[in-house]
Amino acid sequence: FHAMDTLHKHNYDLSSAVSVLVPLGGPVLCRDEMEEWSASEASLFEEALEKYGKDFNDIRQDFLPWKSLTSIIEYYYMWKTTDRYVQQKRLKAAEAESKLKQVYIPTYNKPNPNQISSNNGKPAAVNGAMGASYQAQASLIGRACESCYTPQSHQWYSWGPPNMQCRLCASCWIYWKKYGGLKMPTQTDEDKLSSSQPTEEPHVRTHMSRQATQGTPVRNTGSPKSAVKTRQAFFLHTTCWTKLARQVCKNTLRLRQAARRPFVPINCAAIKAEYADRHCELAGNPLKIKSTRKPLSCIIGYLEIHPAVKPNVIRSTPSLQSPSAKRLLAPSNHSSLSILGKRNYSHHNGLDG
User: Domain SANT spans what residues (predicted)?
Assistant: First the structure.
């Protein structure tokens, strides 16, 4: 800093500036801010820097009022080159990295509402419940687990609606949560198959029975309702006035453009106005509406009365003298090609004979 100041004072003349640095009496010893500051002042500066950051005016006002602002700034940039600053920087980086890695994950011990408590950790028998009503129901069903029919399990889970009192073992419960179905068909599935036989289609019944016999998982939502939902058929019955409007209002009602843009609304008011105007004009000349199709019984009766005459087609047998027969009976020339892949003269024009 002293050398740069001296060089600036001598108008950046290096020879005169060096002569001033080394006078006749001997060299001049210059002390920087690191040597002039005491240990207590250095600790105050570090404390102020940690509190205020690089706000040197507040540092000078609250911690170091006897120091000039120039000396504080000079000391700051000299202090950044020391080992103490590098050590503090490493400690802060390690602390910040450790803070990022310390993620608190709370324990999640929410009980399963479908879980049935067992008897002191022992394997519970008969589906986890020993009530008289459920024993009667279990005897009617003939199995404990609704999927694999096992009578024992270390943990039971309630399955289906509460009025049916169905249970699943631990392995079948995991299978149900994973695939959404059971390993074997339940009583509700059998009831569905038996009750839906007269109403369902034959291919649906064979598919469901084959699925039940092979032991593939049948999707069951636990609902006792055996419902194979069928879509209700419907058709659009157009009135005569609508048919007339389609033919009269062709300028306003453009059906092909409307079909390409199904989400664009049609201006019904304009169509009604045009239909009212055109209807008065066409009152004397009504439009022809397509006749309705006759029923099938009338068409069958007409065909029985007027049967179609089948024409007799006479097919002539080809003779050996016809050009097509000669072409088929002519021997094919399988002569080999030349070396260059070109056909010879006899191959193009036939053999002389």
Answer: 32-84
Helix (H) or strand (E) holding 157: strand 156-159
pLDDT in tens, 110-140: 777 888 775 544 444 444 444 444 443 443 3
The answer to whether residues 248 and 279 touch, using CB atoms and an 8 Å cutoff, is yes
Residue type, 321: Q
pLDDT digits (tens, 9 = 90+) for 187-242: 555 555 555 444 444 444 444 544 444 444 444 444 444 445 677 787 888 888 78
The alpha carbon of residue 152 and the mean position of all alpha carbons in its chain are separated, in whole angstroms, by: 41
What residue ranges of the chain are covered by domains with CATH 1.10.10.60? Answer: 31-101
* Residues linked to residue 181 through DSSP beta bridges, in sequence order: 219
Assess contact for 159 and 114: CB atoms under 8 A. yes
Cα–Cα distance measured from residue 308 to residue 225, given in angstroms and rounded to the nearest whole number? 55
CB-based contacts of 209, cutoff 8 Å, min separation 6: 193
Reduced to 3 states, what is the DSSP secondary structure of residue 119? strand
CATH class of 31-101: mainly alpha
Check: CB of residue 227 under 8 Å from CB of residue 257: no
